[in-house]
Fold this protein.
Amino acid sequence: MITGSAVGIGRAMAYRFAEAGADLDLVDMNIKGLGLVKKELSRFESEIDIHKVDLSREEEVDALWEELSGKEPDILVNNAGIYPFKNFLKVDDAFLKKVIDINLRSALLMCQYMIRKRLKRGGVIINIGSIEAIVPIAEDLIPYDISKTGVIALTKALAKQYGRNGFRINIILPGGITTPGTKAVAKEVARFKMGPLKTGIEFAMRLPLRRGGQPDEVARIALVLASDLSSYVHGALIPVDGGFLSA
Ligand SMILES: NC(=O)c1ccc[n+]([C@@H]2O[C@H](COP(=O)([O-])OP(=O)(O)OC[C@H]3O[C@@H](n4cnc5c(N)ncnc54)[C@H](O)[C@@H]3O)[C@@H](O)[C@H]2O)c1
């Protein structure tokens, strides 16, 4: 099961996983996008089910797992996320809640369901964090940074606690990947919004590979983490960032 799989990194993961023969439950609030992905994946033999879910709404997450009852996935990728910029001094409760609910609380709820439902069978969980949680390079992205730092803590704590139950749990930290989400941020830069512009310049200057990444470059690592090729990788933070965190 891959969340946020209508576009961007999640969509690329859906491609790679389907190509590798996995049956998929694709989850997103963008049902139109999911429909397109499903159509494009029809060339593979995998069975693809799509689910319209707003992951920030607990009742919708509950309904999803109710629907999956008896056929719970053995691999869960918590990828859905938002990264809205807002002047820190103007961040209010509603804004903070929205970012935390989508990026952190939904990942927690999904992990909770996955572990509860598969406690005796185990499985693989891959969370998607961000380099921002390690080095907060972007200005005015503080609620996001907090949410993704929380997802790292969630990943490590669950790995410690549930490895013995047969779960393998890791987190990928992407950075600088070109997706519809980051393209929307780039548009802000084009309008000379100072925060994103400064971030873009600083980011590019520090980036050892000197290019943006493609969603598939994250998807390929997710596929390895989902498979037994990574059978002894557990509780790990894996940057896919063109070397950004190393520089
Ligand atoms: N692109 C990058 O460079 C980058 C860097 C660091 C981390 N990330 C993380 O990777 C993940 C994917 O990023 P992306 O760039 O592909 O994003 P994107 O904005 O291109 O796509 C995100 C997807 O998540 C879905 N989504 C958002 N809120 C949802 C909700 N409440 N319920 C269900 N679905 C929801 C959207 O509809 C969309 O399909 C995010 O968690 C993001 O924080 C991305």
Q: What stands out?
A: The helical segments are 8-19, 31-40, 58-67, 93-117, 142-162, 180-190, 194-206, 215-226. The mean pLDDT is 96. The CA atoms of residues 43 and 226 lie 22 Å apart. DSSP finds eight helices and seven strands in the chain.
